[in-house]
């Protein structure tokens, strides 16, 4: 792994882990079906993502900031829809 940049690895990881939430958010927006989603688990996950975002801001690390800001927005959308549609 000597030729791989840590920022490249972080960016690819960020794209993959952030992107995985897009289909879930889109499905909920389309179907308004949230029964299978645990509100408690999603709130805990959102808190963890908020802390990762804070960590990225402290380090001024672009991949951490970008990925966690986008993921937090997606998760907060899912939480809002869960609260609205139950």
Describe this structure in words.
The chain is mainly alpha-helical and 86 residues long. It has a domain of 43 residues. Helices cover 81% and strands 0% of the residues. It has 4 helices and no strands. The longest helix has 24 residues. It is elongated. The protein starts with 5 loop residues before the first helix and ends with a helix. The model has no long low-confidence stretch (mean pLDDT 91).
Topology:
Layout: H1 6-19, H2 21-31, H3 39-59, H4 62-85
Summarize the model shown.
The protein has helices at 6-19, 21-31, 39-59, 62-85.
Mean pLDDT, to the nearest integer, reads: 91
Q: What characterizes the major β-sheet?
A: none
| Range of helix content | over 70%
* Distance between the amino and carboxyl termini: 46 Å
Shape verdict: elongated
Q: Uncertain regions: pLDDT < 50 for 5+ in a row?
A: none
Number of helices: 4
**Measured on Cα atoms, how large is the radius of gyration?**
15 Å
How large a portion of the residues is in β-strands, by DSSP E?
under 5%
Query: How many beta-strand runs?
Result: 0
Q: Give the H and E element order.
A: HHHH
**Which secondary-structure class do the elements indicate?**
mainly alpha
Descriptors:
single chain, 86 residues, 81% helix
């Amino acid at each position: 792994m000597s030729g791989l940049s840590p920022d490249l690895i972080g960016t690819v990881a960020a794209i993959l882990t952030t992107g995985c939430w897009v289909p879930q958010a889109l499905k909920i927006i389309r179907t308004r079906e949230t029964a299978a989603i645990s509100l408690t688990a999603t709130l805990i996950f959102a808190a963890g993502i908020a802390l990762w975002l804070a960590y990225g801001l402290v380090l001024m690390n672009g991949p951490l900031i970008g990925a966690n800001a986008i993921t937090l927005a997606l998760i907060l959308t899912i939480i809002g829809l869960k609260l609205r549609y139950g």
